[in-house]
Design goal:
The structure is a single chain. The chain has helices at 2-5, 10-24, 30-40, 45-69, 74-94, 109-118, 121-131, 136-155, 157-192. It is an all-alpha fold and 197 residues long.
């Protein structure tokens, strides 16, 4: 157990946290969160955060086992994931819509906010992809840090929207879109060669 915790690497935690922060894009999702709040009446920040954490930790623990069940290795999933991240980055940079989510329902705190907006295909793909490079403990800490950020943002959604304004939100989205694009390219180049060995 002590040896497991000796694997803590703050560089890995920082990098994994940045990847997940860019993918989850909770700041860029503020307009969606506000729309959900108008439709459903209220967004429960704690409930959303706990469900998102549970989904992401579960995928961190059993995700690779599920892949093995279907005969897919981590490298192949990482390459597939890099293509999804690439598409998501184009959405953020160009302002186009490639993935469509329905934003309705009284259970908005769980669906679609916790899943698939926060703990969706992008974050799950990233978690599996990160496992190909980083230790599980560091990814777990990175997930926890991001869920903490999600909770704070959900609590302060209206305040953040007023501070940033529409222009500020647009800039944040494009900046993280470029970061995500660079991550997707790096992830592809690091894992693609493993498919042919």
């Amino acid at each position: 157990m002590i040896e497991y915790f000796n694997n803590t690497d703050w560089t890995q935690i920082f990098k994994a946290s940045m990847v997940l922060f860019a993918v989850i894009d909770i700041v860029g999702s503020i307009p969606i969160i506000i729309k959900l709040k108008e439709q459903s009446g209220e967004i429960h920040a704690l409930r959303t955060s706990v469900v998102s954490l549970f989904i992401m930790i579960s995928f961190l623990i059993v995700g690779e086992g599920i892949l093995n069940l279907f005969g897919v290795n981590v490298e192949a999933f990482a390459v597939a994931g890099s293509l999804i991240l690439f598409a998501m980055s184009l959405e953020m940079i160009l302002g186009v819509t490639l993935f469509k989510d329905e934003v309705t329902g009284k259970t908005a705190s769980i669906v679609p906010l916790a899943f698939p907006i926060i703990a969706g295909a992008g974050s799950m793909t990233s978690i599996i992809s990160l496992r190909a490079e980083y230790h599980e403990l560091n990814i777990f800490i990175a997930i926890f840090i991001n869920i903490l950020i999600v909770f704070i943002v959900l609590k302060l959604t209206k305040v953040i929207e007023k501070i940033l304004g529409e222009g500020g939100l647009a800039i944040v989205k494009k900046v993280f879109g470029i970061i995500l694009l660079a991550i997707a390219i790096k992830l592809f180049s690091a894992n693609a060669k493993g498919l042919f060995l």
